[in-house]
Specification:
Radius of gyration of chain A: 22 Å
Number of domains of chain B: 5
Number of strands of chain B: 32
Shape of chain B: elongated
Largest sheet of chain B: 7 strands, mixed
CATH topology of the largest domain in chain A: Rossmann fold
Helix content of chain B: 25-40%
Strand content of chain B: 25-35%
CATH superfamily of the largest domain in chain A: von Willebrand factor, type A domain
Distance between the termini of chain B: 56 Å
CATH architecture of the largest domain in chain B: 3-Layer(aba) Sandwich
Oligomer: heterodimer
Radius of gyration of chain B: 36 Å
Number of strands of chain A: 10
Shape of chain A: elongated
Largest sheet of chain A: 6 strands, mixed
Strand order of the largest sheet of chain B: 11-10-13-14-8-9-12
Helix content of chain A: 25-40%
CATH class of the largest domain in chain A: Alpha Beta
CATH topology of the largest domain in chain B: Rossmann fold
CATH class of the largest domain in chain B: Alpha Beta
Strand content of chain A: 15-25%
Structural class of chain A: alpha/beta
Chain lengths: ~300, ~650
């Protein structure tokens, strides 16, 4: 890890946080067929002029006679057309939760959860773009003037994504304002084509009820969904040893508690993770839980592996 | 009060400073942002509670420290008064006479029992003694007793004082003062004194003043204890038919006014009668019988200074002890008629013992329970059951006189007179004219002369071995045994080889026989303890091997003296004794004179401060300083124990 990922002024230092060279060998792969516009490295749902044999189908008038299987015609007296696999690009949609709770940063963390998510998201964008896949960026909450980035490929798109990530701040209360999540998810669902990869970064702590269903719905229509739960080390371990008043960052929840609550808290956290994981896996989605004290590069690899 | 003292006391106002500091500390902690707060269960603020406790401890320590500081600064003002001995410089030898009598149970003006105050005074006096001083402790409850012989071990004196408890005994002030004077009189210390801590109520308000004529100077240290109080005591209660006769004593007429005696069994009132407004009297309470086997008590209503003497167990028989006799009344009666010679003889002796005739020797020892002694005149032998009953009666403290005559000698086979005589004996019509006067004189005195010739018409002749087992009291002029005695268990067996019948001799008409009967009755009285006795008077349990009892003060063990085991009840109430396996019920009753709470006068010399001692004021600055030091140390310990680790940044 390349040091702290949050500057003194709270700005996310995405570009300085990663060893970009280490990401070179990584490729975003998925067994699901993609439905891209351009040629790419992913197996396409469509058949076409390719090299790898993809099976036969009945001839219909209009088919290119070059692909008529004459052996089949002579042996079985049937008109069959030979098909070939094609490869296309696969759009990657990065959805980053930028509500207030993602701004939490524990004493031992290199940065806030939003900053850490931004670094991992940027890395994924770099990996995807270097593979020729277009990448789009959508925020849940965050600054009013942050618009995310449309799905596009190329160096310019990456720079725009990096700029958006670096300029983002944790704002908004998704618990109190359910529309923040609904609008973002609806936008992603509407603009993501079949076979798209959707990677959602969130702590999942302050999302409204039934959010799990709304998020899991993104995995429908052949899309590949990976939900990355990003937690701070404090949230994983509950390090408080004495009486403390805790105030949630979203929703006005203040609790007075002490170390005795650790067991119950960890149990509830495990229940939350289990609920998300079981709901997502049941719909073919992936679930990865990471904490911000870990190396973002390792987080990138975990996500890449989960997508396969 | 000087300005400096007032200023020092003003420091105490700073006690509010810790209050303010603690209130400032009690602000709630700032909320700590935590994204997952929604998942954290709220717990009881244990840590805050702990902090509050810690805070309170610290607060108390700091507040006390400030108060102690203020007291220390004002210590010339703050002093405490303690009882102590004045001294000329030489070492002291004092005998502390501590009154533990029943009247010391009365409350003092401040509400505490007089005994507690007196003991506290004794502790203060012992605390004021120096190394080399000697102290002895004498208890003034009758009889006066030495609680601690003279010693220079002041620690032992403190321990002895701590262990002293009040009793219901009468007061023996003169005896205690004399004992105390004796204890310290021979000590090498030049300055010797007897310190009296008593209410001076020994039932002799007109007696000579305390301290007058004493060889050792006497100091009545706590005169404030001497004040008359109202008290009534029940001295005894006896069932007499349908009535219960209750004897009582009061300290004054006013103490009895408006009070009544109730006879109760448990909570059931069997009868009641008002208390006569006299100092001493008797109340006849008509009372129905209580349930079978249940103990019945007489109780005084109302309250007085001493509560322990307001209740007495009702006894069925507790009058003077009786002497039972089994004899042919015709043979024991004079031709002129009237009571038997034995009854007349007991009446002539003026004994508090009555003679009761029995038709025959009882088969069961329980039938002899009402008797202190038994006289069996020339019985036609004793059946095995009678022998067992008589033997057991003697072993439990009874005294039995058996006379042997013609009937006894001709007893049927199996009806022996064992254990008096175990070998065959005969009745002889030949007998000397009288007894050996010279040998009988030491026992019978001048009356022995009357036995020189009593015209016997025969006598029993017993085996020499049987005669040898007896201690000869009176012998025939030929040296044979006439009257003998020997110990059997706790009692005695007396044997006469001459029957009491007037037809056979005029022995029973002789003054010498009265002397013999007096000795016999004295032996019976020594062993027969009435069921009710005065508290403090020891019960002699001569001949008993194993004794234990349980009384108002719990279980106790007897003391072993030269006359055998003795038990001295120190508390009024019912005692259940177990003597050699047999159960006895005895009652310790209050002493009438102890109810008189009027104090004795005190000789001027005994109350002189210069002579007897002085009330000293003791500077407590060093105590306050030590307390302050301890508080500071405690605060440091508490702070180190409750210090929190530095917060991570």
């Amino acid at each position: 890890m390349a040091g702290r990922i949050t500057a003194e002024d709270g700005r996310v230092r995405v570009r300085e946080a990663l060893d970009w060279g280490s990401l070179g060998p990584l490729r975003l792969r998925s067994r699901a067929a993609a439905e891209g516009t351009y040629a790419g490295a992913h197996r396409s749902a469509r058949k076409g002029a390719g090299i790898e044999f993809g099976g036969h189908r009945e001839y219909v008038p209009g088919d290119d006679l070059r692909w008529l299987d004459r052996h089949s015609l002579l042996r079985h007296d049937r008109l069959l057309v030979r098909q070939f696999e094609t490869e296309t690009d696969r759009a990657v949609r990065l959805v980053v939760d930028a509500t207030k709770s993602m701004g939490y940063r524990g004493k031992r963390a290199p940065g806030s959860k939003l900053a850490w998510s931004a670094v991992v998201a940027a890395a994924l964008a770099r990996v995807a773009i270097s593979s020729g896949d277009p990448v789009g960026l959508t925020f849940i909450g965050g600054r009013h003037d942050a618009r995310g980035a449309p799905v596009a490929g190329g160096r310019e798109s990456l720079e725009r994504i990096l700029d958006e990530l670096e300029g983002q701040r944790a704002e908004g209360d998704a618990f109190a304002d359910a529309r923040l999540l609904e609008q973002s998810l609806a936008h992603v669902a509407r603009t993501s084509r079949r076979g798209s990869m959707i990677v959602l970064f969130s702590d999942l702590l302050d999302l409204p009820d039934r959010s799990v269903d709304a998020v899991a719905a993104l995995g429908a229509r052949g899309r590949v969904l990976c939900v990355v739960q990003v937690l701070d080390r404090d949230e994983v371990e509950f390090p408080f040893d004495e009486s403390v008043r805790l105030k949630s960052l979203e929703g006005d929840v203040v609790v007075e508690t002490d170390a005795e609550a650790r067991v119950h808290y960890l149990a509830r956290l495990a229940e939350l993770e289990h609920a998300w994981r079981s709901a997502l896996v049941a719909r073919g989605a992936r679930f990865v839980s990471l904490d911000t004290s870990s190396d973002p590069g390792r987080g990138v690899r975990r996500v890449v592996e989960a997508m396969r | 009060m000087s300005f400096v003292t007032a200023l020092a006391l003003a420091i105490a106002a700073l006690v509010v400073a810790p209050v303010i500091a603690h209130r400032l500390r009690r602000k709630r902690a700032e909320p700590h942002p935590f994204a997952a707060a929604r998942l954290v269960p709220a717990t009881r603020p244990k840590a805050r509670r702990r902090a509050r406790l810690e805070d309170r401890t610290l607060f108390a320590l700091r507040a006390l420290s400030i108060l102690a500081l203020a007291l220390l600064g004002a210590s010339p003002l703050v002093r405490c008064t303690r009882l102590s001995m004045s001294r000329s410089g030489a070492s002291l030898a004092i005998a502390i006479v501590l009154d533990d009598s029943m009247s010391m149970r009365a409350p003092s003006p401040d509400g505490r029992p007089r005994f507690a105050k007196a003991r506290e005074g004794a502790q203060q006096i012992v605390a004021s003694l120096h190394e080399g001083d000697a102290v002895a402790i004498v208890l003034a409850g009758a009889p006066a007793r030495v609680a601690l012989a003279a010693t220079t071990d002041l620690g032992a004196a403190r321990t002895a004082l701590d262990q002293l408890e009040p009793s219901d005994r009468a007061t023996d002030l003169d005896g205690a003062i004399a004992t105390g004077g004796t204890l310290v009189g021979a000590l090498p210390q030049v300055d010797r004194r007897v310190v009296v801590l008593s209410d001076l109520a020994d039932g002799r308000p007109d007696g000579p003043p305390i301290g007058e004529g004493s060889a050792v100077p006497v100091w009545v240290a706590m005169p404030e204890l001497a004040a008359p109080v109202d008290d009534c005591a029940l001295l005894g209660a006896d069932r007499a038919g349908v009535h219960v006769r209750v004897r009582f004593a009061c300290s004054g007429v006013g103490a009895a006014t408006g009070r009544e005696v109730r006879v109760k069994s448990g909570d059931e009132v069997l009868g009641a009668a008002p208390l006569a407004p006299t100092l001493r009297g008797e109340v006849l309470v008509p009372a129905k019988p209580g349930p079978d086997g249940a103990e019945v008590f007489a109780e005084l209503t109302g309250k007085d200074a001493v509560a322990s003497d307001d209740r007495a167990l009702v006894l069925i028989e507790s009058g003077p002890s009786s002497i039972g006799f089994v004899a042919d009344r015709g043979e024991l009666s004079a031709a002129t008629g009237g009571a038997s010679v034995l009854e007349q003889a007991l009446g002539a002796l003026g004994l508090e013992m009555t003679a009761r005739s029995l038709p025959q020797v009882p088969d069961q020892v329980e039938d002899l329970a009402a008797f202190a002694a038994l006289v069996v005149d020339d019985p036609p032998g004793l059946t095995p059951e009678q022998r067992r009953a008589v033997t057991t009666f003697a072993e439990r403290g009874g005294v039995v006189l058996l006379t042997l005559g013609a009937r006894a000698a001709s007893a049927p086979l199996g009806a022996t007179v064992d254990p008096f005589v175990t070998r065959p004996f005969t009745w002889s019509r030949e007998a000397p004219a009288g007894a050996d006067v010279a040998a009988a004189a030491p026992v019978l005195g001048e009356s022995a002369l009357s036995l020189a010739e009593f015209s016997p018409r025969g006598r029993a002749r017993i085996a020499d071995e049987d005669a040898a087992e007896m201690d000869g009291v009176v012998r025939w002029s030929d040296g044979a045994l006439l009257f003998g005695r020997r110990t059997r268990g706790r009692g005695e067996l007396w044997l006469s080889t001459m029957p009491l019948s007037l037809d056979l001799s005029d022995l029973t008409l002789r003054p010498g026989f009265l002397a013999l009967l007096d000795a016999f009755a004295a032996a019976a009285r020594e062993r027969a303890v009435p069921r009710r006795g005065e508290v403090g008077a020891p019960w002699k349990l001569a001949g008993a091997r194993e004794v234990s009892w349980e009384g108002p003060g719990g279980k106790g063990e007897p003391a072993r003296g030269p006359d055998g085991l003795t038990a001295a009840p120190s508390l009024v109430g019912v005692y259940k004794l177990r003597v050699d396996g047999a159960s006895e019920l005895r009652v310790a009753a209050p002493v009438a004179r102890e109810v008189d709470t009027r104090p004795r006068a005190v000789a001027p010399a005994a109350s002189a401060l210069s002579h007897g001692g002085a009330r000293a004021t003791v500077d407590i600055s060093w105590v306050v300083a030590l307390v302050l030091l301890g508080l500071v140390a405690c605060e440091l310990v508490v702070r180190s124990l409750t210090a929190r680790p530095a917060e991570e940044v």
